[in-house]
Design brief:
The protein has 173 residues and is mainly β. The chain is built from 1 helix and 12 strands.
């Protein structure tokens, strides 16, 4: 620390941790309500169970989104995803209210479509992938946030399209 004056040597160890705590607290607090930074992120349409991401180079449609839940909030999320981006896409994460996360399960495919890899569930260009049954699917555990209208807000994170918000219809078992 040669060349740094005494004031800087005493201030730096105090200010740096305080600044890091402030930045970390601000980030942790803002994540659940964060607005996506990508201009092509989509917001759910007025119709529950549907959303689309459309921007330059992005053409992704999500339909038939349904959360099948039991009384404890466990179940599955089913949906159909159409990728016309021009490039392969990956579904990397599914989020529900109160920091809930869905577990991605890959399907069995000889061509890779719907398979789980390190980036998420593969969605080849020009393909439609149905998330249910024997195909890829999303497991939900202890879900909170279902509205009185039987709607569950869901955020889907795609590698190319970014964040897509959709309102899943909820059925109970």
């Amino acid at each position: 620390m040669a060349g740094i004056n005494l004031c800087a040597r005493t201030t730096l160890p105090v200010v740096t941790p305080a600044l890091l705590v402030t930045l970390t607290a601000g980030c942790a607090h803002s994540i659940p309500n964060a607005t996506p930074s990508t201009p092509h992120s989509a917001v759910a349409t007025s119709t529950p169970g549907e959303a689309a991401a459309r921007a330059r180079g992005i053409d992704l449609t999500v339909t038939h989104v349904v959360a099948h839940l039991d009384r404890s909030g466990d179940g599955t999320l089913t949906m159909t995803v159409r990728n016309d981006d021009g490039v392969p896409e990956h579904l990397g994460m599914v989020a529900t209210p109160d920091r809930g996360r869905g577990t991605l399960v890959g399907g069995k495919s000889t061509k890779g479509n719907g398979m789980l890899d390190t980036a998420g569930i593969l969605l080849l260009d020009g393909s439609t992938v149905t998330f249910d049954g024997d195909g890829p699917h999303v497991l939900l555990h202890h879900v909170h946030g279902v509205t009185t209208q039987h709607i569950l807000p869901v955020v889907l994170q795609f590698g190319v399209a970014g964040l897509v918000r959709v309102r899943a219809q909820v059925t109970t078992a």
